Amino acid sequence: MALLFGATSLIRAGSPEASAGHLTVLQRLETAHLQATHEARLRFARERQSLPDLGLFEDFRAVMHVHAEDAEHTKGTRQQVLEAARKTGVRIVMFTDHGGPRPETWRGIRDGVLFLAGEENGGAGLLRFPDFGSDGKPRSEDDVRFLSHIEERYDASADGFVGMEICNRHTLAKLDPSLQEWLLSAAKNPDEWRKRLEDFKVYPDEMFAASADYHAEIFAKWDRELDKRPFTGIGANDAHQNPIFQGTTFDPYEVSFRNLCTHIQARALTEPEVRQALRDGHVYVSHDWLCDPTGFAFGAVNNLGVFPMGDAVAMTGTTRIAGFTPLRAKLKLIFFIKAIVSRLQSLRSLIVRCGRRSVPLRL
Ligand SMILES: [Zn+2]
Ligand SMILES: [Zn+2]
Predict the structure, then answer these.
(1) Of 1-15, 18-32, 88-102, 134-148, the least confident
(2) Contact present, 166 and 2 (Cβ < 8 Å)
(3) If you measure from the C-alpha of residue 98 to the centroid of ligand 1, how many angstroms do you get, rounded to a whole number?
(4) Smallest Cα–Cα separation from 131: which of 314, 10, 278?
(5) Could you give the domains of the chain?
């Protein structure tokens, strides 16, 4: 089961093309749309309310698939990653060195931020977060592995993986290169370029996010795996701080970290707890630049107890599914992938009675 929390639809509802529905990347990049999106963000921030602490887990904002000082084409440093994490409230950074983890990559807590050292193997479509032995060396057993760059491997076997990227910044840029092409073409005309730079100064998050979109094939792959077993979906920043046009960096870590977050629900800010939360699916993916979703929760309650997202719940007695959001939102509840029941509400909480079923429900 999945519960999707969308604020983008609210932004579209406020834009002139709402009736036409979907905006293209180039439409979103028009100054008027950048401004409308910015105003919607300010409104969301004003209307946002804190959620009650449900006491099960703490909600840690994480960024996964981050590169720094690991390859020629990576332009950012670990220190810059730390500074961006501090500015954006990121508590967990999961590095994925090309061919790593490098021995010097950070692990443990620095300035209140927990770092994990992992590897990206691009050819194999693999993100790997090894456990480390008492000698400080990565061990090959007990890796937490995710399928990466799904657009290159929709039919890849998921054996040995605990989950997959359901959103990756570079995947988005490959599937729709309009933003990149638009910057390249503007760079040839000094007047045009000056205008773009002005927009970027005022609306860096809005411009960065303009190329994000829903790609059905990626979610279809996730659905196929979820049909067989639990399979954790993660957001992949794939941050390198390297799209640099005429001296301006268009994906500073700070903007990337606000744009896409994987919220990890764990009992404590430690590497073993984070690894367990990722295995258990105590995770949700969000675009925090739109509005801070911290505290978002959904789960099930029945006479056996309370079951948070990621867990399986035995459907005895009357089971209720409950969800809480910090903002009025459109909530879509999807049961058993194909037999879809969707329910749209403009409320900050949702409660659905499920009744009895013979099979446990996985949240
Ligand atoms: Zn790279
Ligand atoms: Zn990467």
Answers:
(1) 1-15
(2) no
(3) 7
(4) 278
(5) 2-361 (3.20.20.140)
